[in-house]
Specification:
- With 372 residues, the protein is α+β, with helices and mostly antiparallel strands.
- Among the domains are: 67 residues; 71 residues, no CATH class.
- It is built from 11 helices and 14 strands.
- Strands 2, 3, 4, 9 and 14 form a 5-stranded antiparallel β-sheet that branches. Strands 10-11-12-8-13 form a 5-stranded mixed β-sheet, with no helix packed on it. A two-stranded antiparallel ribbon has the order 1-5.
- A hairpin with a 4-residue loop joins β11 and β12.
- α3 packs across α4, α5 packs antiparallel against α6 and α7 packs across α8.
- The protein is globular, with a radius of gyration of 23 Å.
- The protein starts with 5 loop residues before the first strand and ends in a 5-residue tail after the last helix.
- 30% of the residues are buried.
- This is DUF4238 domain-containing protein.
- Pfam families: DUF4238.
Length: 372
């Protein structure tokens, strides 16, 4: 392999599941950037790609492209086989090796995105733009201590040189740290349950440049506390399959079962909206699906009697589960007296009667001799 300078932070093997194959082996997706109203049809080669994002700086010893090559061999090349496992409806359990492969590839899509590096560089630019204003207003020097506790004396002659050097340090930290966190997180999630849900074709799923959602017990993104035992992880696999990795807080030891379920069009519309809101700037889908997403939001958001009733049910479910996870977090267990009481309250309300994950939790209580 040569020097791969244009590097996909979301692999083409993943993007293809939201694309249609065109002539000359090209794969086309519809895509929309935040702030634009123009849906464009592009090839998978043109989206979720950034120059040298995984390339180590020139002074780094060894192969500067080693990380990109590692992703190519450990993730991108094997994702098609992982995807086929997940959508195989006959498969209801995984070997340990298969589960680790699933987690390794899916979770890599979270850790390898440039969100965290871009976030750090934006904060750095904000600080240095402020320093520049101060120097232009009469300050001779500014004393600054960076995140690595290194002191800098900044003046008009060296401000851009120091800014550039700190961005190199940010990149090195990103390249080194995200690999370590990725491997730790895969080990941590090995005990969690996994479910693949199928949605109706009426509301096809979309994806984004930040496809993996890590949600806290309040159902809000929790990207800065990923090891919270109450987090749930979600990702659309294609137009009709949605994967959920359940929280460590409700795990029952190492689980090799691969659950399967079905969800309705309102579930699909809801997760599509969350995908749009948590994107780093771009949403994408099979040609026609991005437009269908906005049409479904308009139709399912209308104030009809059916929609109001369904919205209340969704809200009650989310609120009930969020309260259960918060109680479990405070008491340290899903099996505390308070958690069991809340689970019984949810069960008696009937709002979770058709939820497979809640049924599994009830089954766990029953197996432990806890009667609700």
């Amino acid at each position: 392999m040569g020097a791969p300078k244009h590097q996909h932070f979301i692999p083409k093997s993943f993007l293809k599941q939201f694309a249609t194959k065109a002539e000359e082996g090209r794969y086309l997706v519809d895509t929309l950037m935040r702030g634009s109203d123009e849906i464009k049809t592009l090839t998978t080669t043109q989206v979720c790609v950034q120059k040298n994002i995984y390339t180590f700086p020139p002074e780094t010893p060894g192969d500067r492209f080693s990380l990109e090559k590692r992703y190519a061999s450990e993730v991108d090349d094997i994702y098609p086989s992982v995807y086929n496992l997940l959508i195989d409806t006959e498969l209801t359990s995984l070997s340990k090796e298969q589960k680790r492969s699933v987690l390794n590839t899916i979770l890599s899509l979270y850790f390898r995105t440039p969100f965290f590096l871009n976030d750090e560089n934006e904060k750095l630019d904000k600080s240095f733009d402020g320093f520049n204003d101060r120097l232009n207003s009469g300050d001779d020097i500014i004393e600054y201590i960076d995140e690595w506790n290194e002191a800098h004396v900044i003046n008009m002659e060296n401000i851009e040189e120091i800014r550039a050097a700190l961005k190199v340090k940010n990149k090195l930290f990103f390249l080194d740290n995200h690999l370590e966190q990725w491997k730790r997180f895969v080990d941590y999630k090995m005990e969690c349950g996994i479910e693949v849900m199928e949605v109706p074709a009426e509301v096809p799923l979309i994806s984004s440049d930040n496809p993996v959602l890590i949600l806290g017990p309040d159902s809000k993104p929790n990207p800065h506390n990923i090891f919270d035992q109450h987090n749930i992880i979600e990702i659309a696999l294609d137009r009709k399959h949605y994967l959920v990795i359940y929280p460590n807080a409700v795990s029952e030891g190492e689980r090799l079962e691969l659950r399967r379920g079905k969800r309705d069009k309102r579930f699909a519309a809801g997760v599509n909206l969350r995908t749009e809101e948590t994107s780093d700037g771009r949403i994408l889908g099979y040609p026609g699906d991005v437009k269908a997403h906005f049409e479904s939001q308009k139709a399912l958001g209308a104030h009809t009697e059916e929609n109001i009733k369904d919205f209340k049910n969704i809200r009650d479910k989310a609120t009930g589960l969020a309260e259960l996870f918060i109680i479990a977090k405070k008491t340290g267990s899903m099996f505390s007296k308070e958690s069991i009481a809340k689970a019984k309250e949810i069960k008696d309300s009937g709002i979770m009667d058709n939820d497979d994950a809640f049924k599994k939790l009830m089954g766990t209580y029953s197996a432990m001799g806890i009667k609700l």
